[in-house]
């Protein structure tokens, strides 16, 4: 009822009738510059480090594993079901719990863990962002509840920025229920404009590019 | 012409600490914005603004189409759209759903739309606990205050104010270090997130071709709100629509930069429906509440519907010399600053707070920084004219009306204008300084008194330009 | 040499006639035939900005009648220039015959500094003025007419003048027409911020292209006990 009333009011105000065709919207504005992989890596490192994130460029899966093992020392970690993490051997580390398929145990583990380990579908060079599509392999809370977030990302997944992402995925909702961009550690400036990290999400973010 | 300044504005002007706090906070946001739109970082900033304006214009002009498209796509992904005409309908929907699901606790992330309809109060009246989770909003909820600023809600509070509020409301030991205050809030709210049955968010954008809700934030509370509880309800005004996911490439580049000088905020979520097959976490139910609450009234006027393009970045507040003096709580509604001054009268009717469109020097700084190019000064001028018309209808401010009529009559009669000018100058016979600190008692009222309350007044020239010009021409001849 | 018609504005006519005379001096020095249509009064802005459009329209019609045959209309105010060249369009949007006249006059209305740099092509008008000065951007000139550089270019060629930029050159002085009396305390607070910025430069003079801003700034400076003086650009350029 409210639906029809509101739609009727909108149409009356616009002088339109139900089902009246609509002119096409202004064309989307996507610019795709040519940027080499090395330049993208440089830009990503610079952008994320400006935000107090840490980036490690791993020459091999072994190096990625070593970085992760080092970070996990003395802490517990929860890892997502992303294939890349298993390929690097991360899910086999002693400190790492993985292979969750149920909500309740995953939540409990994330609430206790010192580190959440995920992969990411893409990274964006110009803003230092991770792009994560929620899916069975990648649960949401792993990058959110633990105080430290480590993401291991295939460097070939490093895009220049938003424009490239949206030209590759014009309709992300067809592929995922939630697409999330993560750009640096959680932060607030709500008290006297003082920057504080780790208010609700992780206070530290590490990205390993493999 | 009487003074229109609200009492709250005068109190704010007189509070030196508050003045400093507002000025420092908005000043910092101005600087950050400026460096983030720097030619080197964003060479196409002006083109993006124009593009965003055109996109919003197109969407609003075809809003019925995009609303239906949005609804269709939300349904396709297993969500549900609920239209609500006002705050009562929103509260009824949430309360009914909570009752059906046996929900007791709601976590909320920052939403100006829910502030607009006093949702928390409405839910609490029916014993449904609703907790704000944005740090600033949480502090304000504890203190029972309204947001001071669209983006920085607790901008007016110091760490000592926060310490008082926490000590009083949370029964914790007094803590004045912001970092530790943040940790206190984090631990209280973490429990709430994990226990909550329903998460309520606003929406920065509604994407028609995706049936998606876009949420932009820095703390992670919006992500927790839409990820942790089993039910996610997004509440948004119908004007939040944009046509396509690809349009986010334009809007996201502008929003973070205009609001806080960030190329992208820490978290941007594009949520399209409940969790899908075999997903481990995420909500089981997803609702989008589309709120009218007066918005359809604004669509009818071709010029003024531009106010619905607003993406709530708050840049116009930061750059407004009036907002920076009188602060957010001097405005009558939750939307303050220049954008508040144009939308409040349109939602509430121009006669409710008729002073509002006049509370501007028309300097145009708001228009200059608006990421979607809303011509705020032009809309203020139109609203002023509507206020004047409404007052004439109601027989109010007759004296002012008569004065402007007389003035216009004189201005079309140059000889009379000149004569009255000479008489005016005669009231201020030359003696001593060119500038007056006081005027004779007879004249000490109305506009002259108001002027002199703040600054000295120049005397009218003993001989006007036209008199001197005639003399000069005669001399030359 | 072409003829220029002065529209001196009501504020200059009644309160700051020296500004109008200085403007005429500079234009005559550049060889222009300067004319002052005596039937002129006001552009109508006070009524327009206060919401009295019908009254503003009457005064605007008078203006259009008076200046109908002018080639160049030169104005010592960004605000009044913008009223004529921009806001007359809004004012007459329902009166096609007047709208046409407004559109015809718009390209012939010139703010003084832009007239000098863009039409007369005279960055150097041969002025000499000893002292340290700072320039205040008036809002309507800056944001509606996009006049940022012309006055600065002209001032940079004045012999003896040292130009010091203030940190808040582009921030409103708080005048805003009737705003200055309807919201006197807010307006006064804005003037306070402006003069703090002026005083930080150590300048002896504040220069602008709008006399109404200068009325606000000078009034506030005097009230604050400062010796800093305000000058219209025309007064500086006329001085030798």
Short description:
The complex is a heterotrimer of chains A (210), B (477) and C (240). Chain A is built from six helices and twelve strands.
Report helical residue fraction of chain C: 40-55%
Question: How many DSSP E strands of chain A?
Answer: 12
Q: Determine the structural class of chain A based on helices, strands and strand pairing.
A: alpha/beta
> Treating each run of at least 4 consecutive H or I residues as one helix, how many helices of chain A?
6
Gross geometry of chain A: globular
> Termini separation of chain C (Å)?
23 Å
Element string of chain C (H = helix, E = strand): EHHEHHEHHEHEHHEHHEHEH
User: Helix fraction of chain A?
Assistant: 25-40%
Quaternary organization: heterotrimer
Question: What would you report as the Rg of chain C, rounded to the nearest angstrom?
Answer: 17 Å
Cross-sheet strand order for the largest sheet of chain A: 1-12-7-4-2-3
- Report low-confidence residues of chain A grouped into runs of 5 or more: none
Mean pLDDT of chain C: 97
**Got a strand count of chain C?**
8
Q: Report the β-strand fraction of chain A as a percent range.
A: 15-25%
Mean pLDDT level of chain A: 97
Low-confidence stretches of chain C: none
Global shape of chain C? globular
Main pleated sheet of chain C: 4 strands, parallel
Write the layout of secondary structure elements.
The complex is a heterotrimer of chains A (210), B (477) and C (240).
Chain A: H1 2-14, H2 37-50, E1 54-57, H3 61-72, E2 77-79, H4 83-87, E3 96-97, H5 103-112, E4 115-118, E5 122-124, E6 129-133, E7 148-153, E8 158-159, H6 162-168, E9 178-182, E10 187-188, E11 196-197, E12 204-209
Parallel strand pairs in A: 1-12, 2-3, 2-4, 4-7, 5-8, 7-12
Antiparallel strand pairs in A: 5-6, 6-9, 10-11
Chain B: H1 7-14, H2 16-36, H3 45-61, H4 63-76, E1 80-84, H5 87-101, E2 105-108, H6 112-116, H7 119-125, E3 129-132, H8 135-143, H9 159-170, H10 178-195, E4 198-201, E5 205-207, E6 212-217, H11 221-227, E7 231-237, E8 241-242, H12 248-260, E9 267-271, E10 285-291, H13 295-299, H14 315-318, H15 323-326, H16 337-348, H17 365-369, H18 376-393, H19 398-411, H20 414-427, E11 435-436, H21 446-452, E12 457-458, H22 465-476
Helix pairs in contact in B: 2-12, 3-12, 16-18
Chain C: E1 3-6, H1 10-14, H2 17-29, E2 33-35, H3 45-49, H4 53-66, E3 72-75, H5 78-91, H6 96-105, E4 109-111, H7 112-119, E5 128-135, H8 139-144, H9 149-156, E6 159-163, H10 179-182, H11 184-201, E7 205-208, H12 211-223, E8 229-232, H13 233-238
């Amino acid at each position: 009822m409210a639906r029809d009333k509101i739609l009727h009011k909108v149409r009356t105000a616009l002088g339109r009738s139900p089902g009246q065709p609509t002119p096409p919207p202004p064309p989307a504005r996507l610019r795709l510059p040519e940027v080499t992989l090395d330049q993208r890596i440089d830009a990503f490192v610079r952008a994320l480090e400006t935000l107090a994130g840490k980036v490690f460029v791993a020459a091999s899966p072994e190096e990625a594993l070593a970085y992760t093992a080092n970070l996990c020392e003395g802490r517990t970690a929860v890892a997502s079901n992303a294939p890349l993490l298993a390929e690097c051997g991360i899910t086999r580390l002693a400190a790492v719990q993985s292979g969750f398929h149920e909500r309740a145990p995953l939540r409990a583990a994330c609430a206790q863990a010192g580190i959440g380990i995920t992969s990411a579908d893409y990274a964006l060079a110009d803003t230092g962002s991770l792009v994560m599509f929620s899916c069975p392999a990648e649960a949401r809370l792993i990058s959110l509840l633990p105080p430290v977030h480590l993401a291991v990302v295939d460097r070939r997944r490093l895009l220049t920025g938003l424009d490239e992402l949206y030209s590759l995925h014009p309709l992300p909702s067809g592929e995922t229920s939630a697409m999330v961009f993560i750009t640096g550690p959680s932060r607030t400036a709500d008290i006297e404009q003082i920057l504080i990290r780790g208010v609700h999400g992780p206070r530290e973010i590490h990205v390993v590019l493999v | 012409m009487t003074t229109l300044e609200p009492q709250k504005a005068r109190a704010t002007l007189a509070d030196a600490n508050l003045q400093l706090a507002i000025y420092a906070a908005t000043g910092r946001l101005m600087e950050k914005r400026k460096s983030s739109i720097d030619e080197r970082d964003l060479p196409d900033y002006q083109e993006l603004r124009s593009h965003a304006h055109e996109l919003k214009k197109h969407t609003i002009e075809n809003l019925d189409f995009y609303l239906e498209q949005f609804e269709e796509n939300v349904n396709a992904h297993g969500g549900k759209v609920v239209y609500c005409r006002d705050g009562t309908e929103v509260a009824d929907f949430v309360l009914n759903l909570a009752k059906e699901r046996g929900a007791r606790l709601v976590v909320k992330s920052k939403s100006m739309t829910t502030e607009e309809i006093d949702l928390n109060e409405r839910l609490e009246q029916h014993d449904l606990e609703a907790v704000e989770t944005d740090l600033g909003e949480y502090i304000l909820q504890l203190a029972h205050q309204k947001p001071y600023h669209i983006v920085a809600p607790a901008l007016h509070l110091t760490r000592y104010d926060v310490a008082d509020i926490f000590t009083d409301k949370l029964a914790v030991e007094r803590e004045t270090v912001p970092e530790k205050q943040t940790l206190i809030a984090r631990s209280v709210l973490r429990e709430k997130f994990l226990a909550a049955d329903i998460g309520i968010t606003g929406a920065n954008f509604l994407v028609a071709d995706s049936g998606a809700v876009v949420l932009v934030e820095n703390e992670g509370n919006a992500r927790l709100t839409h990820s942790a509880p089993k039910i996610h309800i997004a509440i948004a005004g119908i004007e939040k629509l944009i046509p396509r996911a690809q349009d986010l490439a334009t809007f996201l580049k502008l929003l973070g930069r205009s609001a806080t000088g960030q190329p992208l905020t820490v978290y941007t979520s594009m949520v399209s429906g409940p969790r899908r097959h075999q997903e481990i976490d995420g909500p089981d139910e997803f609702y989008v509440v589309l709120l009218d609450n007066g918005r359809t009234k604004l669509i009818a006027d071709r010029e003024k519907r531009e106010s619905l393009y607003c993406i709530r970045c708050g840049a116009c507040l930061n750059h407004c010399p009036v907002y920076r003096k009188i602060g957010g709580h001097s405005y009558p509604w939750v939307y303050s600053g220049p954008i508040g001054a144009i939308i409040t009268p349109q939602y509430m009717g121009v006669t409710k707070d008729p002073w509002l469109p006049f509370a501007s020097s028309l300097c145009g700084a708001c228009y200059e920084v608006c990421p979607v190019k809303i011509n705020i000064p032009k809309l203020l001028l139109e609203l002023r004219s509507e206020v004047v018309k409404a007052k004439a209808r109601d027989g109010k401010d007759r004296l002012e009306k008569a004065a402007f009529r007389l003035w216009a009559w004189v201005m079309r009669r140059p000889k009379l204008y000149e004569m009255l000018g000479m008489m005016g100058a005669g009231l201020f016979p030359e003696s001593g300084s060119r500038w007056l600190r006081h005027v004779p008692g007879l004249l000490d009222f109305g506009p002259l008194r108001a002027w002199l309350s703040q600054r000295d007044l120049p005397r009218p020239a003993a001989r006007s330009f036209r008199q001197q010009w005639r003399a000069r021409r005669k001399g030359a001849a | 040499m072409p003829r220029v018609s002065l529209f001196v504005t009501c504020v200059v006519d009644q309160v700051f006639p020296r500004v109008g005379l200085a403007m005429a001096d500079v234009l005559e020095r550049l060889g222009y035939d300067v004319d002052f249509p005596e039937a002129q009064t006001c552009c109508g802005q006070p009524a327009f900005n206060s919401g009295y459009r019908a009254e503003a329209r009457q005064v605007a019609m008078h203006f259009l009648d008076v200046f109908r045959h002018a080639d160049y209309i030169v104005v010592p105010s960004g605000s009044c220039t913008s009223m004529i060249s921009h806001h007359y369009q809004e004012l007459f949007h329902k009166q096609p015959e007047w709208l046409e006249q407004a559109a015809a006059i718009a390209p012939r209305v010139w703010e003084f500094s832009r007239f000098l740099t863009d039409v007369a092509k005279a960055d150097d008008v041969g002025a000499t003025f000893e002292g340290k000065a700072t320039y205040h951007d008036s809002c309507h000139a800056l944001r509606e007419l996009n006049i940022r550089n012309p006055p600065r270019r002209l001032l940079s060629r004045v012999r003896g003048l040292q130009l010091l930029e203030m940190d808040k050159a582009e921030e409103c002085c708080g005048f805003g027409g009737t705003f200055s009396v309807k919201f006197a305390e807010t307006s006064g607070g804005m003037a306070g911020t402006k003069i703090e910025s002026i005083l930080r430069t150590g300048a002896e003079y504040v220069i602008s292209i709008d006399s109404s801003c200068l009325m606000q700034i000078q009034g506030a400076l005097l009230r604050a006990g400062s010796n800093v003086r305000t000058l219209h650009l025309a007064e500086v350029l006329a001085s030798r």
